[in-house]
Amino acid sequence: MTNISYECYALGESAIVVQLGTRIDPTIHEQIRQLAAYIEANSFPGYREMVTAYTTITIYYDSFAVYTDQANTGSHTGLLPYERVLSYIQATIREFEQKDMTVFHEPHRVVEIPVCYGGLYGPDLEEVAFYHGISAEEVIHRHTSQVYPVYMIGFAPGFPYLGGMDERIATPRKKVPRERIPAGSVGIGGSQTGIYSLETPGGWNLIGRTPLALFQPKASNPTLLNVGDRVRFVPITGEQYDQQAERDELNEL
What we know:
The chain is of the alpha+beta class. Helices cover about 30% and strands about 25% of the residues. Strands 5-12-9-10-7-6-13 form a seven-stranded mixed beta barrel.
């Protein structure tokens, strides 16, 4: 049996948010991961998709399909689509709480991300090291010593929000953001680290870059990382970076 604390509220006319907390927390993350899988496995007519975040699950649905289903099945009792979906979600959560959730627990996939640190690929590495009064090698050591859970995907397609970074290398965002950050750049922003999946503006401190493509729109699974994965950063040389990038280009041909 699992006991969870939550609240539900509408997000417009075609979405409901289930909020399980107000802080970034591994336990809440696991509850969100498991509850989302359970709701999706027991979806309702009109269900479209869901988006998980640090503390919430947002469930999107087709209001007209919900209304039509309750009319066709004779279950129409004057409830608005939102009210019917809310009732369903609350009932599903009650069922979820009665289950042995080890049945729904999927092992975490660990994805190794090769990163070339410093130099052209990590122009802010020395600055981060200076900020903390340590060597660049120590920044790399602390950054690669953690295994990072993927809490959510957002900001840009395939961009992972990672937890678990060593607080000893937490560094404030840059006062003046860059207008263009290359795809694959690994950065530190405050107490978070992440990987830019596309070339975008950004204000994080760039400490390295990976040759892996985090977002491939033509692939059957366009994002390299998914919520629930674990990331391990592995340092590589500039030569290894170039070799990996060249292999990936050939594979795309």
